[in-house]
Give the backbone structure.
Amino acid sequence: MPAFPVRPLAPDDAPAYRALRLAGIAELPAAFCTTHALESSLPMAQMRQRLQPTQNQIIFGIFNDAQLIAMAGLRREAIAVVHDKASLWGVYVAPPARGQGLGRQLVQAAVEHACAIPELATVRLAVAQDNQAALTLYLACGFVLDGAAPQDGMLHLQLLLPRPAVPAAKVPQSSVFLKIKPLQIPAK
């Protein structure tokens, strides 16, 4: 099996990205949060902008020669109250490239990238409950069901990112939780 390196996509990869994304939407419309018509109508400038890595988003790809054959995005939440969470999205491997571990390579690259961001604690994703191949991949990579009931046929999974333990002696007092007695509600 030839080695296919994973790399962040760049604005110059926009035509290849668009072609693979449209192929994915056509094959698995439920797996993408858009329609083929909407995505194909986006200007190439917008595709290039999407591929510009930022502090909140990066899209990884795998090429076979000049052809993009697999992709996955990682988006960090920008809202302060959920800034410790990121979403894995747009994971797709072209049919002829399946069965070679490319999906796992992409998920691992995204998780490694997330681990390098100290504030991130969780990576989340949604997967169609009938997409057994994707579900098997995510579970094998350490994702677990988040406990929420499936919505519109989608399962929600999460991965808690490994973080080094802080020795108890070094935990600042301001971060220690106070033990509070349970609220007593008088019976009527």
Remarks:
- The helical segments are 14-27, 36-40, 44-50, 102-115, 132-140.
